[in-house]
Design goal:
This protein has ten helices and 20 strands. It is α+β, with helices and mostly antiparallel strands.
Length: 405
């Protein structure tokens, strides 16, 4: 499994000179605003990507988002719409199947000032989503195109999920991801690598929560003792949740909505927070801690509290199952002259979901880039052919040697 075989070398040679075509795709895709809440832009992007992937010959369909809800600032639960997702299937009856995932959405809404690409230098493209992850989708497509021209293609089936809501924790696409993961043997996700090519190893999990606090209004001067201050209770809850933080768990109370005129004891408030556990045990501790804190605050302040939310991204430890795929990626990199390294991160992605479904998954196979989620986001253009070659070789090696889930 060391050096390239003549057949492998011939397939990888098909990627030579593809940088310009890949950049043209990325710049065109980045010009389409696909903020997670821009359903019109996401619909255009879904049609555009369906057409771009069509020559591969897979069955391509749009899948409506699963139902989701959100808590409004005044504490009411209401439906929250997400865009359609793309699902592609090739050779579903092959003995080994790979799930490749990416996301169409970005963090830049239709009203965000960051909407256009520009070249910072001859090799660095700045633009919305160029690294995270329209560049990754281009790498995925190029690798699959090369692989489909290989003599090994018949031995491997694949599915692609391009979702519309990854940046908001994939509430509408989580069932699609979980369903596809059950049919496949390993996962490849195309989030960006760091500028030096370092991959994400273990990942913390993530949960987003809202607590609606119902108190009792009263006159702040005449009879304040008759009131039950919901804002004060929400603040108490925030402090109790923050106290749960430790080396294996971060807690970020992010916002309190509520209150009104200074002469009225506020009867409603909404606290929003994020938690990032690094282990399954830390997640269990966080869940128990939420329940205990809510019960204690409700009793202390004589209020009613309803919690909305969950850990949508379970922790992704770099266990033996994950390590063997990382080792294969590292080996493929060495064959291509790439030094592949990885490090743990507190960031989350759909790779967390795939790992929770039992798949070995490497989730930073996209372009080299950085400053994601900011107007300084950039793509290293010299990584396009490099990363496509890495994925194409990885697919060929799995096709030839198999993979046990």
């Amino acid at each position: 499994m060391s050096a390239l075989s003549p057949a492998e070398a011939a397939v990888l040679a098909r990627l030579d000179g593809q940088r310009g075509a890949m950049l043209a795709e990325i710049e065109a895709w980045a010009a389409i605003n696909t903020g997670s809440r821009n359903l019109d832009g996401l619909a255009i992007m879904a049609d555009t990507l369906a057409a771009a992937f069509a020559p591969l010959g897979a069955d391509v369909r749009r899948v409506a988002a699963a139902p989701a809800t959100q808590i409004t600032p005044d504490g009411h639960e209401q439906p929250l719409a997400h865009g359609d997702n793309l699902h592609m299937v090739m050779r579903p009856h092959a003995p080994v199947r790979v799930l490749l995932t990416g996301h169409m959405d970005t963090v830049f809404g239709a009203d965000h000032p960051f909407q256009a690409c520009r070249w910072l230098d001859a090799d660095t493209l700045n633009g919305p989503g160029v690294a995270d992850m329209k560049g990754g989708i281009a790498v995925m497509k190029a690798a699959l195109t090369a692989f489909e021209a290989s003599p090994f293609a018949a031995q491997l089936g694949w599915e692609v999920v391009l979702n519309s809501d990854e940046e908001v924790s994939s509430p509408g696409s989580a069932p699609l991801l979980a369903d596809a993961a059950q049919r496949c043997h390993l996962g490849l996700t195309y989030e960006p690598a760091l500028p030096d090519g370092t991959l994400a190893g273990a990942r913390a999990g993530s949960g987003n929560f809202s607590a609606t606090v119902h108190g009792r209004a009263a006159h702040a001067g005449r009879n304040p003792a008759d009131g039950r201050n919901a804002v004060l209770a929400a603040a108490d809850l925030a402090l109790r949740l923050a106290a749960l933080a430790g080396d294996d768990l971060s807690v970020n109370p992010a916002r309190i909505d509520g209150g009104g005129p200074n002469n009225i004891v506020p009867d409603a408030a909404v606290l929003r927070w994020n938690m990032r556990p690094r282990t399954a045990h830390a997640q269990q501790r966080a869940e128990a801690g939420i329940n205990d804190a809510v019960a204690a605050v409700a009793l202390a302040h004589d209020v009613h509290i309803h919690v909305h939310g969950r850990f949508a991204r379970p922790p992704k430890p770099l266990d033996a199952n994950q390590q063997r795929l990382f080792d294969l990626v590292k080996h493929c990199g060495a064959v291509l002259g790439l030094a592949i390294a990885w490090r743990d991160t507190g960031g989350v992605c759909d790779g967390n979901n795939l790992a929770a479904a039992g798949l070995a998954v490497v989730d930073t196979l996209g372009v080299r880039g950085g400053a994601i989620h900011s107007s300084d986001e950039f793509l290293c253009a010299d990584s396009l052919e490099e990363r496509a070659r890495l994925s194409a070789l990885l697919l060929m090696r799995v096709a030839q040697h198999g993979w046990q889930r």
